[in-house]
Every structure is written in C-alpha cells, then in structure tokens.
Fold this protein.
Amino acid sequence: MLTFRAKQQGPKVVILGGVHGDEPCGVEAIGYMGTILPSLLLQGEVAFEIGNPQALLLRKRFIDCNLNRLFRGDSTLTPKERASYEYTRAKVLKPLLASCDVLLDLHSVHEPNAPSFVICEPNGYDLASYLPASIVVSGFDKLHPLATDAYVNLCGGIGICLECGTHDEPSTLQRAIQGIYGILAALHMIDEQITPRTQQHLKATYIYKTRHNFMPVQSFAEFTSVTKGTLLGTDGNAPVLAPFDGLLMFVYQCEKAEQEAFVLAKHVPLR
Ligand SMILES: [Zn+2]
C-alpha cells in the first residue's frame, strides 16, 4: 500500500486497482498517480492499494474465488471461500475500506469497445459526476452486497466503482487516471478544475444466477436494450428469457450452477 498525507486534514480516500487480476488499468493508473500525487495533494489522505496481487501476476481474474464477493462477516462466506487466497486479501483490505470516507475501485471488462460507467448508490451521485463516464448504475449494493463498494457504504463511507472500459485499451488507462483526478478534484484535495457532467442514471434490479450453466444466444454489448420475453440464452436445456424490459449488463457464459450470468437494469428519472 502507498499512502500520501497532506499537512492539512481532509477526507481519506482509498483508490483500489486490480481487485480482478485480469484488469490492469487500475494498477497502472495507481503507478502513474503515485509518482505525481505528492506534489499535488493539498489536504487529506490518499491510500493506493492493489486488490489481488497473485492473480495480477498470473493475469487471471482470481486464484480461488472472486475477491469482490468476500467483503462481509465470515458467517456469510462458504468454507471454500474462507480457505481461499482471496479471503486473506479481503482480511487485509477490510480495515482500510472500513476507515475511508470515499473508495474509488477501478475495473475493466473483456468485451471490446466497452463504454465506461460508474457503479454507486445515490450517496455517490455527486462525486460520480466528476468521473469520465456518461452512465451511472445504482442498485448493486443489493445485487452484490459483498463487493468492495457495498462494504464501504455499509461502513458509512461512499463506495464508488468505475468501470473504465476494455482491458488493455489505452483509453481505459486514461479513464482510470481521469477517474482518480476527478474524485480528488471533487473533494478539493487537488487544485484541478473539472466540470461535473450530466449523467444518465440506471438502476440494476435483477441478477440471473445459473441453475446448471448459461450459454448466451449471442454476445451482448453492455447496456443492450431488451424487451420482456427476449431469448437471452439457455440454462441446461431451458430457455432463459428477459424477465422485463431493461438494459443488459455483465453477460457472461457460465459453466457451473450458482454463477452470475447477467444483470438487468432500468432507467431511473434524473434527480
Ligand atoms: Zn472487475
């Protein structure tokens, strides 16, 4: 962990990269910002931390299980999760997340030409408007209650995840860096003028977990609009239909039961 403290007191911000080992943008952005932040920081404290160093070395999403589903009490976790490498990482990260005012967790996706978007609850909307994304999705605290951002919200901070785009595209790293600038500028921790943007707000309300497996009928770009009853894929031999009109997110082919196959979101009115 790399921590910078200004002489003047102020917010405590955690910037997290590499929670998933195949998503290098956050780690690279942290490497860059770590070299320039000491001369920029006016107030408060910024901690840069790497989520899953072993998985990053191997360029895998995780070693034993998804780190971003382990942030809660031990009783909510399975014996396999408690025996995992990722559990040891969650144990290190939890006190840091519990003590911060704001978390910015930087991620990317495998799908080509993916748009950037923010995941946060309404407590993060103001800060989100300083991030390089035109879409903000809430509702994940309910769908992914064991994720980093949900844990920070539970502990009284503001948890924000920035999906920066496609793994390894240069624009994805740029957005990760812009995201760090945006959060620190919004909190007046650096002297940088960033104009907040008007964003489209969605709410994710549904997650499909597999009974056996999931094979999508096609590849779906993030936020593909579907109507109720649209065939999305198959689970075993059964068709999987869209349960309501909405926008598809995080569609993954799955090989086992109880895996997260896709999320469905709806538009929410602007404030
Ligand atoms: Zn990720």
